[in-house]
Amino acid sequence: MLVERARRGDQDAYGELVTRYQALAARVAYVITASSAEAEDVTQDAFVKAYYALDRFREGAPFRPWLLRIVANEAKNRKAAAGRRPTVELSAAADRASGETALSPEDAAVAGDLRAGLLAALGRLREEDRLVLSYRYFLDLSEVEMAAALGVARGTVKSRLSRAMERLREVYADA
Amino acid sequence: MRELRMTDDQLALALTDLGTRIAWPALPDMRARVLARTSAPRRSEWWRAFWSPRYAFAPALVTIALALLAVLVFSPQARATATDILRLRGVEIFRGPVPTPSPTPSRSPGSIPSPTPTFDQTTLGELVTLGDAEKRAGFRVSVPTDPALGPADAVYVRAVEGSTAISLAYSARPGIPVSPQLDLAALVTELGGHLEPAILGKVVPQGTKLELLTVNGSPGAWLEGQPHQVFYTSNGGASYVTDTLRLAGNTLIWQQNGLVMRLEAQVDKATALRIAASFQ
What mean pLDDT, rounded, does chain A reach? Predict the structure, then answer.
């Protein structure tokens, strides 16, 4: 078990955990900070902090939610410290011309409009709504992981998600 | 205004599709950079065994509070760890510097008659006169007048976080076994700080007998058994300090005049209380 080995000070084991989870951690950090430079710093710092906090990791518990909570906290702190400043909104790639989805040019244009509209709507949502939707649909986090990253009880994740969906629908429809 | 409101399923599908196309930043592999910062050993968190979230209120409720005890293997290394500072809010442990002994003890002639102590004085601090000790500490040092101890053989002063600890060392005394740890029969330690017996009772380790009692009209505790560490607060409650008990004997600890007083000696409780009552 990598976590157990890392807890005993095995650097290789911890390196393996970094390799395994750094992409996910960086995406969570990016969703929160909306800055790739900040996401990189946050991810690195969070892994260092997590290492020194391994004593507090409950044996047998899943590692991902525990790590994501640390990443999310680090990202929120970093964002609060940085204050308001221009951020990059999420962007999405368009269908490729030779697209495997075999959409007609018209359908591809409609799909492109839908994606652009959703991204714009997401950008206008409150942070807590935007985060829960991003965690669920962009990062495919489990309920436990969402709760950890949001810093809320697991039982409130569902209601937050459905409320965020409702707001997204309203904002999207009003555009 | 868009014409159609999407159903939940449609919206979820559209978001999932969107999620597969998000342009995530391409970040470099961080493994090497993280590992470069994790090579230092983790700090020991043995005190966690005694930790419960309810104690998070302690610093607020008892701005002056004390603490707890933990069994600590009585190794020379442990004794050399003169002070550990535990900050409950930040959950950080800091190790204070081990006080360096003064190469030439500054003692005024005749103040304390004493043979040169043979034990490792570095764990107790700097050898000084009683007068110097009081000046350094900024408080008046109470001295036991019980004939079982008589005058102290040596006085030591050392800094602890936010306070100063004064130790009165007593070498061989009739009827009191000498501790093999420090070649002393008794050790009195006085330091600025506060005792909170309510917490003490929750955290006493197995192997140590704890009895809460009143000493000279103030809260105190009687400890028998293993050598241990004592926690108390200094800096008006801002810092939790742990101090290793120096002798493997019994310990009486109590609050007096804004100080935490400690008597370590292999004597019975009645004798310890009698000695405590003789402090002037």
Answer: 87
B39 touches chain A (CB under 8 A): yes
DSSP for A92-119 reads BPPPPTT-TT---HHHHHHHHHHHHHHH
How far is residue B50's CA from residue B61's CA, in Å, rounded to a whole number? 19
How close A137 gets to chain B, by Cα (Å)? 5
Nearest CA in chain A to B18: A115
Q: Tokens 């000790």 map to which residue?
A: B133
Residue B237 lies in a domain: yes
| The CATH number of the domain covering residues in A105-174 | 1.10.10.10
Query: Who among A22, A52, A172 is closest to B2 (CB)?
Result: A172
In the sheet with B163-170, reading across from the earlier edge strand, the strands are B126-128, B154-160, B163-170, B186-192, B259-265, B250-256, B218-225, B208-215
Cβ separation A44–B42 shorter than 8 A: no
Give domain limits for chain A. Answer: 2-82, 105-174
Residue B228, pLDDT score: 53
Cα B5 to Cα A171: distance, rounded to the nearest angstrom: 11
**Record: contact B34-A174, CB cut-off 8 A:** no
Task: List, for residues A62-101, the tens digit of each pLDDT value.
Answer: 999 999 999 999 999 888 877 655 555 677 666 554 445 5
Q: Which domain holds residue B255?
A: 63-277
Q: How far is A11 from chain B (nearest CA, A)?
A: 7
Residue A168 pLDDT greater than 90, yes or no? yes
Contacts with A173 from chain B: Cβ below 8 Å = 1-2, 5
The count of domains in chain B is: 1
CA distance B140 to chain A (A): 42
Give the tens place of pLDDT for each residue, B241-259.
555 555 656 888 888 887 8
Q: Is B11 part of any domain?
A: no
B17, B38, B43: best to mutate for the A interface, most A CBs within 10 A: B38
Indicate the fold that domain A2-82 takes in CATH. Answer: Rna Polymerase Sigma Factor; Chain: A (1.10.1740)
Q: Is residue B167 part of a domain?
A: yes
* C-alpha–C-alpha distance, residues B65 and B48, integer Å: 18
Complex ipTM: 0.88
Nearest CA in chain B to A92: B22
Q: Find out whether B235 and B62 touch, Cβ atoms under 8 Å.
A: no
User: How close A151 comes to chain B (CA, Å)?
Assistant: 17
Name the B residues in 244-263 with CB < 8 Å from any A CB: none
Residue B20, in any domain of the structure: no
Q: What is the mean pLDDT of residues B119-129?
A: 73
